[in-house]
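Technical annex, item 7. During the second reporting period the consortium partners agreed on a shared format for inverse folding records so that results from different sites could be compared directly. Each record opens with the tokenized structure and is followed by the designed sequence. A conforming record, contributed by the partner at site C, is shown below for reference.
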């Protein structure tokens, strides 16, 4: 099995577009469709034809290009069963635990309610690649629009058990502001401090911070670290539940 080719580009304001191309079958999936023109431009630059769209959730900045891409490529649109009515052009629905083949690559679907009620992530198992969209960001997590903090915490735990070396592609370049916030929650974390300095430098040079790895997020992302003793001490929440600590961190980020 040959490895997948990925093309990552920024579009709209801070959305990441990602094309996933299987060189053996020539299949190409667009992870979400934030902007049809940007997706088409990226595909044409590579000489790829879009055959699929893998939708993560119903927000406009993830589905706005669906119909225009379908019109141009007649591609198949796959998306979350719990948001099916809100996703333009949807052909096939996926629920938690479903899996399907993309060429010879197995894709597992992981439902991660929190940011929206039906958000799904796509895990390319053998490739060790996760498309987490607006559930898990580098040093951050999605805002809670449709589900509770406890729901989001449990969703994040489903991602946290994947292999440490998993490469994580996320939906937005929010990493610099996430890093500055993370330092307020976990100021003594040496790995976080050095990562935050790297991110400041990368963004100053206009570089993207995508992808990250699960190992890196587990060590530095406060939203995965509600159980960490020094974070709990900092927040004066040593006797509270992980869900409560996570909810407090999320609330502080909303007001940051
Ligand atoms: Zn969203
Ligand atoms: Fe988004």
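Designed sequence (site C submission):
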């Amino acid at each position: 099995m040959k490895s997948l080719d990925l093309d990552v580009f920024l579009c709209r304001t801070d959305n990441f577009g990602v094309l996933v191309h299987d060189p053996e079958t020539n299949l190409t999936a667009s992870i979400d469709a934030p902007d049809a023109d940007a997706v088409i431009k990226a595909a044409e630059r590579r000489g790829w034809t879009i055959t699929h769209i893998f939708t993560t959730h119903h927000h406009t900045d993830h589905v706005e290009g669906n119909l225009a891409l379908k019109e141009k490529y007649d591609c198949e649109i796959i998306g979350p069963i719990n948001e099916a009515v809100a996703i333009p052009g949807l052909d096939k629905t996926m629920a938690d635990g479903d899996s399907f083949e993309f060429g010879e690559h197995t894709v597992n679907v992981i439902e991660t309610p929190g940011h929206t009620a039906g958000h799904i992530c796509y895990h390319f198992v053998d490739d060790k690649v996760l498309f987490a969209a607006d559930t898990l960001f580098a040093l951050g997590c999605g805002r809670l629009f449709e589900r509770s903090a406890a729901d989001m915490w449990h969703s994040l735990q489903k991602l946290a058990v994947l292999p440490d070396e998993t490469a994580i592609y996320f939906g937005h370049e929010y990493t610099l502001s996430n890093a500055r916030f993370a330092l307020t929650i976990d100021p003594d974390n040496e790995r976080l401090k050095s990562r935050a300095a790297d991110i400041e430098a990368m963004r100053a040079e206009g570089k993207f911070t995508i992808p990250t790895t699960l190992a890196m997020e587990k060590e530095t992302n406060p939203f995965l670290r509600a159980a960490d003793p020094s974070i709990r001490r900092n927040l004066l929440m040593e006797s509270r539940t992980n869900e409560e600590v996570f909810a407090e961190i999320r609330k502080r980020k909303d007001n940051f």
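The chain has two domains: 5-170, 175-254. The CA atoms of residues 101 and 141 lie 28 Å apart. All partners now use this format for quarterly exchanges.
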